[in-house]
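Weekly modeling sync, notes
Attendees: S.R. (lead), two postdocs, one rotation student

Agenda item 3: backlog of single-chain predictions. S.R. asked that every request posted to the team notebook include the full sequence so nobody has to chase files. The rotation student volunteered to paste the first one in as an example of the format we agreed on. Action items at the bottom.

Example entry:
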Amino acid sequence: MTPARIAILVVALVASVGLALLVHGMFARPKPAPAPPVVVAAGPVMTRVLVAKSDLGVGDRLSAENMNWQPWPAATLNAAYITDGQTMQAPKPGAESAVAQAKSTVTDIATGGGPKLQAMVGSVVREPIYAGEPITTGKIIRSGDSSYMAVRLPAGMRAISLPLSLESGAGGFIQPGDHVDILSTHADPSKSSGGGGMVTETILSNALVLAIDQHTDAPKTGATLAGVTITIEVPNVDADAVARARTQGGLTLALRSYADIAGHAQGGGNDAVGVKIFRGGSTAETVSAQ
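Predicted structure, as returned to the notebook:
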């Protein structure tokens, strides 16, 4: 084969290869451009807001069981909300978020919700608070506030204060939250002025003790709470009878057993049964019992 023919064959081969590459490039699918790296933006700064676990009505008491902490964006925080005082960057979704939530739950269980939540326990709801709604200072009344007792009282009940001493108050063992009977000892009106007869009657039974002086809760240490004034919850229909008995003096408070406090307070009324006590051969006192 002559050199000329060899050159022609080489040129033809090169041309065919180039044509094949050109045709392949025209019909081959283009490769997709590489995806840009995913950048996860930092979450918003968060805090925790105290919210109601369930619907709370007027007069309900806040407890560790009906409150909890809810994550809340710090940028939308209302000044009236109650927070735990801490701020944090919102964790990235996924395992990191689950770990952070688990740590927070364990801490709340160990501390009873923390000091901020515990400080609200015992407060009384002044306006309805719905489940998941932030608890605001304007919707609750804390113990010691001027309106606390008015909100604490159920409908149809009144708060009346009576003098208290160790002798008249079961030796100082009566505490807020206990139930008592109110007894009045006074001159027997059925006796003549010179008879000297005395009668004791039950003015009110099963009355709830609201406060001793300004203390509305019993001491947590178990110690007795001595005071000079006791405030009791009285049905409005019996408030006048208790007020009259207070002016007569001789009031005694009988502490009731916790096994005997079911139901509401009841007035003595006219259903009392008189029991005569004889001393030295003569009637010295008549005790009225329910």
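Discussion: group reviewed the output briefly. The CA atoms of residues 200 and 287 lie 5 Å apart.
Action items: rotation student to repeat for the remaining queue; S.R. to check formatting next week.
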